[in-house]
Amino acid sequence: MQVLSHVTDELTDLIRSATRVAVLSGAGISAESGVPTFREAQTGLWEQFSAEDLATSDAFHFAPALVWTWYRWRQSLILQVEPNPGHTALARWQQGLRAAGGDLSIATQNVDDLHERAGAHVLAHLHGSIFDHRCAECGEPAELPVPGYDGFAAPPEPEDPPTCTACGALVRPGVVWFGEMLPMEAFDAASAAVRSADVVVVAGTSGIVQPAASLPLLALERGTPLIEINPVESDISDAMDYCLRGPSGTMLPALAD
Ligand code: BJW
Ligand code: ZN
Questions:
Q1: Residues near ligand 1 with C-beta < 6 Å?
Q2: Is the pTM above the cut of 0.95?
Q3: Does a cis peptide bond (omega within 30 degrees of 0) precede residue 162?
Q4: Rounded CA separation 141/160 (Å)
Q5: How large is the ipTM?
Q6: What domains lie within the chain, and their CATH numbers?
Q7: With b meaning 16 or more CB within 10 Å and e meaning fewer, what string describes 192-226?
């Protein structure tokens, strides 16, 4: 494994020769847009909330208003921020490869829409989307207006979730909570993309949450080069060929352009 502080000529050559690139992104890629990550020390408003506590169906069952409002507040924040140079570099790279007959696939663990707003096509939202809603019991999709909270202000007073028009049960966010299965189609598509890639790029994830964290490791079967972009070591750094130690907003444009 090579730990690098900048993109070397060797890495540039590797990227230039790749026509099929698979990317796995995590919360770190949206950090420079102002969306807090899950597991880094938080200051301010997010200190009091942890994904392990709130991103579960048990939490929603016992404290539906708290969990619901946490998600609506986070939606508001995401709507208030913009894609950063990491997202836009990936979108440009994808467009360039597609124009040349290749492809760059993005499988993201993020529930935000910043890849799409940067102009990229996302192959797989492994943990769902924070903007989708469905009934927690019967699965009926629910259309809701965007929340009116200020995502940068203090968390709002908990509000009850709306109820399903079909069965009356509570509406929940369309995300994947701990203990729930990932959407099979998304996971299979992401696995196939990693298996057929010339290069795999892992950006902004701690590599802690399974099964997403194991996806890039499928590349090891074929000896495909693995590149990580993260300012610090992650749980999957050891499996990487190259670890670019820096923010994705700097490293992705340096790799892609
Ligand atoms: C930067 C940066 C910059 C900062 N540039 N980088 C095997 C072993 C052990 C446990 C399990 C296992 N298999 C399954 C489990 C259980 C569980 C799990 O993995 N638990 C772990 C905590 C150990 N997994 C599940 O339950 C999954 N389901 C499942 O396995 O189903 C099968 C099953 C069902 C029933 C029984 C048994 C099996 C589902 C996981 C769902 C995860 N959901 C969440 C919440 C989504 C909704 C929401 O947003 O609220 O997804 S949790 C949260 O973590 C969110 C994220 O997508 C996910 C990953 O986090 P991510 O993206 O890596 O963020 P961070 O914060 O951890 O890291 C950020 C990184 O960015 C850091 O490294 C920074 O350094 C870096 N960074 N700035 C680049 N500028
Ligand atoms: Zn229902």
A1: 26-28, 31-32, 37-40, 51, 55, 109, 111, 127, 175-181, 203-206, 208-211, 229-232, 234, 247-249
A2: yes
A3: no
A4: 18
A5: 0.96
A6: 1-35+83-127+182-257 (3.40.50.1220), 37-80+130-175 (3.30.1600.10)
A7: ebbeebbbbbbbbbbbebeebbebbebbeeeebbb
